[in-house]
């Protein structure tokens, strides 16, 4: 049976943070940091106004895979958890349904450098492997987004992909991309060995 975000007991509490499914009421809070140049620079889409952002954020398909990060009741970031099918040969595709996920994250610049992103994404990975029983996670970023790929490496994700000038950035430059992944058994081995 494919994993489903409804299988998780929300909200999830970490040492300092609360992670929960996003609601339309989170639109303005997430817009407050996603519109900032330091954040917007790495996002795959840009919105010119709160109304335009609201249309995207509140789209049911997007909202269904968006989580928010709260610190003392204030939204300081958001996470994406998109459960997906693995590739499989056609006669066994059913066995590959909903067994992996693509992850994403965004944190307010006011809250960077304090370990919140690491804490939130570590918990997101735990949710994927323990609560949802997924077998693999992956995440991508521009190679120039050092903070993002360093976070993945801190969390023991493996760089599997380095594409050269594959992605056109809104700056007009063609940029390299990095792709990272982690298997459930790798994650468990890292946890056992501290």
UniProtKB/TrEMBL annotation:
Tagged with keyword Flavoprotein: no
Pfam families (alphabetical): Acetyltransf_3
Membrane-crossing residue ranges in chain numbering: none
Keywords from the named record: Transferase
Gene Ontology terms, MF aspect: acyltransferase activity, transferring groups other than amino-acyl groups
Domain of life: Bacteria
Record-annotated N-acetyltransferase domain positions: 17-194
Transferase among keywords: yes
Name used for this protein in its record: GNAT family N-acetyltransferase
